[in-house]
Amino acid sequence: MFDTNVLSFVFDPPTGRAEEAPSRELWDALVANRRDILIPAPSLAEFMRRGHKAPPAVRNVEIIPFDTPAALILATGLPMSVLKAVNGTGTSMTHLKFDSMIMACAARGRADVLVTFDPDHPKLKAQAGRAFAKLSVMTPPEVLAWVAAPAAAAPAQAALPATTAVRPPS
To answer: Residue 25: is its pLDDT beyond 90?
Structure first.
């Protein structure tokens, strides 16, 4: 599942930022290999609010809604007590509420990995409930290294299926 910041690095005009190349490389590899790419509806809204059009209509891109199942996951897996604990690290509550909706969409969509550069997602994951136990939070360079690593050298997340940021291909 791609977070807003990674989508922006993929589709914004190049600026030379270090995050752009691995974000684009990961997107292109997933599209080329026909892997399912999940985008949480809150990230899509944030992405489009910044003046972007929706990502290109690619067969393997799926928008995961923030609907009743996602709301239930959010309420039970990331209650306000978790947000308040993470909020103590200096992040605004508004930002954390939005990030928690993105994580709830990831759990609802059964994503293996949330691909992000946002430092708050790992903090939320560390405090989250069981609904997020199988979700890894990684940056695009980490996902690319994980995918390229031989099984013996792969990071701790190597136990995940070889689907990188997404569900297995259909």
So the answer is: yes
Q: 3-state SS of the chain?
A: CECHHHHHHHHCCCCCCCCHHHHHHHHHHHHHCCCCEEEEHHHHHHHHHCCCCCCCCCCCEEEECCCHHHHHHHHHHCCHHHHHHHHCCCCCHHHHHHHHHHHHHHHHCCCCEEECCCCHHHHHHHHCCHHHCCCEEECHHHHHHHHHCCCCCCCHHHHCCCCCCCCCCC
Q: What is the pLDDT of residues 64-116, one digit of tens each?
A: 999 999 999 999 999 998 898 888 767 788 889 999 999 999 999 999 999 99
C-alpha pair distances (Å), 130 with each of 98, 151, 155: 20, 26, 22
Boundaries of every domain in the chain: 4-159
Name which CATH class applies to 4-159. Answer: alpha beta
**pTM score, two decimals?**
0.83
112's tokens: 């293996």
Please give the share of the chain, as a percent, with pLDDT higher than 90: 58
